[in-house]
């Protein structure tokens, strides 16, 4: 509050007391009010926090809940693919087995800041043995986790093959307002197949022609893109991360399924729509892995 505001408040309060009580009482009350306001102003000048401010400052950070963070916009996703070095096999077998506990403890340490998933690609990919998907409300928290992972036994014996960074956003095109019919189809379908065992990550980049189209033109293309995907929502889970300006791609498409034949058919359907002509990158790399706990991934790598 400005200092002249103090004088205005004192004047208003003084007028009321002069109208209602004795002069001594009025003077005493005014002095007390003035002293109280002076204390408040002095506290503000000295940076002393109010109880409300203290409560805000000591508020606990937002807890990470899996179902919540995976369904919200504004969540950062970091995908990092690793290849184990040949020297990994020279690490004593006991130390390789202990590495699983080390990674488990690291994930536990950061559980209030990031959601960590780890996938096994060894045996399915040439350039990677495993990869992380780290979801976080604050990208710096994901960076901290990945930095500390590099100090673990597994991290020290691995090289990064690929890193992708994106952020989740609300639907851009198939919304209730812009495309109510398709939006209803998206909302009505839900995954009902057996628990997914496989994960696929495909980065996608559009060309300049796509981005220079009008929003209405892009909407029409995305409606054609979306229509053939509805039939696969029952056996393929999908999630989209936006990467333009955050990485050298525009989108990170993430899928989980237990039916790789259905996934192959979905990709063939998408390859045949006109919107595919605007892609300058689709995959490269496409990463296929299997879904396990982080502990089990490291144990498998230690064998």
Task: Describe the overall structure.
- The protein has 303 residues and is of the alpha+beta class.
- The protein folds into two domains: 3-57, no CATH class; 61-303, Alpha-Beta Plaits.
- Helices cover 43% and strands 21% of the residues.
- It has twelve helices and nine strands.
- Strands 1, 2, 3, 4, 5, 6, 7, 8 and 9 form a nine-stranded antiparallel beta sheet that branches.
- Strand 6 and strand 7 form a beta hairpin.
- Helix 1 packs antiparallel against helix 2 (23-46).
- The longest helix has 24 residues, at 23-46.
- The radius of gyration is 29 Å and the shape is elongated.
- The N and C termini lie far apart (68 Å).
- The relative contact order is 0.14.
Strand and helix layout:
Elements: H1 3-20, H2 23-46, H3 51-57, H4 66-69, E1 76-84, H5 93-109, E2 115-120, E3 130-136, H6 139-149, H7 153-156, E4 158-167, H8 180-188, E5 198-206, H9 208-211, H10 215-226, E6 236-242, E7 251-257, H11 260-271, E8 279-282, E9 287-291, H12 294-302
Antiparallel strand pairs: 1-3, 1-4, 2-3, 2-9, 5-7, 5-8, 5-9, 6-7
Descriptive labels:
43% helix, 9 strands, nine-stranded antiparallel β-sheet, alpha+beta, disordered N terminus, 21% strand, 303 residues, elongated, Alpha-Beta Plaits
């Amino acid at each position: 509050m400005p200092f002249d505001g103090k004088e205005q408040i004192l004047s208003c309060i003084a007028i009321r007391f002069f109208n209602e009580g004795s002069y001594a009482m009025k003077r005493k009350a005014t002095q007390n009010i003035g002293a109280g306001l002076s204390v408040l102003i002095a506290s503000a000048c000295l940076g002393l926090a109010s109880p409300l401010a203290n409560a805000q400052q000591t508020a606990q950070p937002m807890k990470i809940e899996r179902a919540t963070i995976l369904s919200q916009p504004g969540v950062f996703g970091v995908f990092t693919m690793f290849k184990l070095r040949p020297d990994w096999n020279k690490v004593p077998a006991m130390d390789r087995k202990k590495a699983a506990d080390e990674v488990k403890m690291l994930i536990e340490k950061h559980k209030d800041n990031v959601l960590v998933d780890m996938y096994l690609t060894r045996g399915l990919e040439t350039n990677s043995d495993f990869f992380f998907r780290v979801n976080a409300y604050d990208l710096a928290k994901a960076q901290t986790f990945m930095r500390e992972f590099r100090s673990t036994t597994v991290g020290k014996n691995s090289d990064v093959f690929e890193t992708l960074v994106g952020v989740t956003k609300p639907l851009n095109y198939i919304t209730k307002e812009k495309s109510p019919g398709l939006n209803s189809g998206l909302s009505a379908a839900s995954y009902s197949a057996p628990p997914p065992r496989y994960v696929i990550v495909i980065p996608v980049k559009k060309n300049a022609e796509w981005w220079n189209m009008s929003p209405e033109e892009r909407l029409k293309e995305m409606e054609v893109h979306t229509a053939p995907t509805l039939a696969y929502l029952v056996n393929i889970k999908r999630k989209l991360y936006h990467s333009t300006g955050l990485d050298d791609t525009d989108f990170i498409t993430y899928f989980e399924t237990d039916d790789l034949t259905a996934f192959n058919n979905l990709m063939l359907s998408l390859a045949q729509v006109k919107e595919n002509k605007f892609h300058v990158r689709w995959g490269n790399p496409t990463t296929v892995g299997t879904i396990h706990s982080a502990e089990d991934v490291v144990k498998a790598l230690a064998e």
